[in-house]
Amino acid sequence: MAKTHPPYPPAFQAEAVALARTSGKGSPHLAQDLGISEQALRGGVKRSDIDAGRGQPGELTGAEREACRIRSGRRRRSSGRSGEKQRCGRSERSGGAAAR
Fold it and tell me: Thinking of the domain 8-79, which architecture would CATH place it in?
């Protein structure tokens, strides 16, 4: 089973993303210096790009992901099926990616 880590604080994530963009170091070396996984660093950079409007069409921004998380929690509570995983996706976006 994979190891899990609690989410990094937003300030730390923002600083790691800024360093990834400006340091000139590769992701593996920078991630090792920061004490995080390379995947966590790449994911943070990708989420930052999406939130800034530079993501692929159809990808959810941070605000959309949060709204989706809240809606899915409400659906699970109201349906009584707490074990069933319900996922928000691109099809739930009104206006689609072209609305950007």
Answer: Orthogonal Bundle (1.10)
